[in-house]
Amino acid sequence: LQERPKKVVCLVPEITRILFAIGAGDAVKGLTWHDTSSPEAAHKDIVGGFWSPCIERIDAIGPDAVFVSSLHREVREHLAGGACSLIELRSRSIEDIYRNIELLGDIFDRQEQAADLVRRMKETIELVSRKLDRVPPGKRMRVLRLMGRDRVMTPGDDSFQNEFIRAAGGIPPETGRKGEVVEVSLEEWNRLDPQLIYGCGGDRET
């Protein structure tokens, strides 16, 4: 990037939330309808959902940068080679999230705000860890992050989501497979026997 992006479309809610948190929300011109964590999001253009972004709406904004995930293949192919920068920031661990926050601070000239956000996150996780030291392993719950509607799916063993479950005192599933999303068979589900299941808003009915 030669300069700070001024017209950003963000298709990754995790990144959108960070941008608002470090004071770079003014650059965000388009986002998904999943972005509900910040009041600022109510005044931005909606370009579809995470799984179904509308290319025509993205084009109408004329962004100079679009934040994508590895799953946004159609968007990537459409914008590849154009003037718009495609940015993918992967998070496979909590340390990756800290690094991405600092990198976004550099991109949007919000280094001080990014450093403060990382500091506050570390303090929170450290506080939770100290409290969890008093909870014996036998009292901790088996927790599964539900993903997918037509099939039962969960993050792979190397996902930052399972690292967060452990940081919060839960016991995440171990499927023996890595990746952002892996399918869970009925046999595996019965073996995992989750006590707590959580997901995104659209997973409530499932």
Q: How is this structure best described in words?
A:
Helix 1 links the parallel strand 1 and strand 2. The chain contains 7 helices and 9 strands. The model has no long low-confidence stretch (mean pLDDT 91). A 5-stranded parallel β-sheet has the order 3-2-1-4-5, sandwiched between helices. A two-stranded parallel ribbon has the order 6-9. A two-stranded antiparallel sheet has the order 7-8. The protein has 206 residues and is of the alpha/beta class. The protein has helices spanning 13-21, 55-61, 73-79, 94-107, 111-132, 160-167, 186-192, and strands at residues 8-10, 28-31, 45-46, 65-67, 85-87, 143-145, 153-154, 182-183, 196-198.
Blueprint of the fold:
Elements: E1 8-10, H1 13-21, E2 28-31, E3 45-46, H2 55-61, E4 65-67, H3 73-79, E5 85-87, H4 94-107, H5 111-132, E6 143-145, E7 153-154, H6 160-167, E8 182-183, H7 186-192, E9 196-198
Parallel strand pairs: 1-2, 1-4, 2-3, 4-5, 6-9
Antiparallel strand pairs: 7-8
Number of strands: 9
- Fraction of residues in β-strands: 5-15%
In angstroms, what separates the terminal alpha carbons? 41 Å
State the strand order across the main sheet: 3-2-1-4-5
Taking all Cα atoms into account, the compactness measure Rg is 18 Å
Biggest sheet descriptor = 5 strands, parallel
Overall mean confidence score, pLDDT: 91
- Class by alpha and beta content: alpha/beta
Order of helices and strands: EHEEHEHEHHEEHEHE
| Uncertain segments | none
- From the spread of the alpha carbons, the general shape counts as globular
Number of helices: 7
Helix content: 25-40%
